[in-house]
Design goal:
alpha+beta; Chitinase A, domain 3; six-stranded antiparallel beta sheet; two-stranded antiparallel ribbon; 28% strand
């Protein structure tokens, strides 16, 4: 699979086509939309069962692989005792993500990953029966705002590498500093009713990954880093829309819709810090205040 198709398989935000299949009458049949809470119970039970009955190890290439705890592997440590649980709150359901940390990543300042960052990664996607549906064996850049929420929000539990690498005699590149882990995602934080190539409807997913480097983003080029436009800090930049124009702030060059560009209502200082001016002193910075008289 080429990298364009790899990225396309993960894109969630811009893909809203209704999923359907063909019945025996050769007509399209819409997939019944299931209740989020009810489906989450099913997904979570399936994920927990997998975690209780499987272990992980690193293969000869240093990649995470999963296997069943049975036979010669009967004494292996179950994943369930090694993962951390991260709760993702939504209006409908509070979802559990299960995150395995093999390498935390760099301790250098500035390497904390945010859900609006762009990250250099390799990864492998699997169903819970260990069927692989996607893989990038060479590092590629992901804009985390363009992938499923369960994938992007797991990354914020890691720190990126510094991109430090060396070129081997055979021309391959080795990264000496990176994060490595896995995440187990209920379908409500994945594709839910939207089938994808190799991914059936309502499928919980697992991803293993390495994170080599990050780049901070400013998607709308308004002078404010995209992570700062997640105003409620809930790791969901899509629900912050100050002017109510259906465009989230991180993609809106005029956040308050007052006709003055955001970059003209802030001051970017020489050291890169930002001063958020508040001309009328009402506690709301100018770039979010369409009632400001300036």
């Amino acid at each position: 699979m080429n990298f364009k198709s790899v990225f396309g398989a993960l894109v969630l935000v811009l893909f809203f086509a209704a999923a359907c299949n063909n019945d025996d009458d050769n007509g399209p049949t819409s997939i019944p939309l299931r209740d989020q809470a009810e489906q989450y119970v099913v997904d979570n039970d399936s994920i927990v069962e997998f975690l209780q009955t499987h272990f992980y190890e690193l293969d000869a290439e240093g990649e995470i692989v999963f296997d069943t705890i049975a036979g010669d592997n009967a004494g292996r440590t179950p994943l369930f005792t090694q993962v951390e649980t991260k709760v993702i709150e939504t209006d409908e359901v509070d979802f559990n993500l299960y995150i395995l940390t093999v390498r935390q990543g760099s301790e250098s300042e500035g390497n904390d990953i945010r859900v609006t960052d762009s990250t250099l990664v390799t990864y492998r996607g699997r169903l819970l029966d260990n069927t692989q549906f996607d893989r990038a064996i060479n590092p590629i850049w992901f804009d985390l705002t363009g992938v499923i929420r369960g994938f992007s929000t797991s990354f914020s539990e890691f720190t990126a590498g510094n991109g430090i690498s060396e070129t081997n005699d055979d021309g391959t590149v080795t990264f000496a500093d990176f994060a490595q882990g896995a995440v187990f995602i209920p379908s409500g934080l994945g594709y839910f009713e939207r089938a994808q190539p190799g991914i059936p409807f309502y499928s919980p997913l697992s991803f293993t990954f390495k994170i080599f480097k990050l780049e901070e983003t400013d998607h709308d080029n308004d002078g404010i880093p995209s992570y700062m436009e997640d105003l409620d800090n809930n790791e969901n930049p899509f629900d912050d829309d100050t002017d109510g124009d259906t465009g989230p702030n991180y993609l809106d060059a005029d956040d308050d819709g007052d006709g003055t560009l955001t970059r003209d209502e802030i001051v970017v200082n020489e050291d890169g810090t930002i001063t958020f001016t508040d001309t009328d002193g009402d506690g709301t910075p100018d770039y979010l205040d369409n009632r400001n008289d300036n």
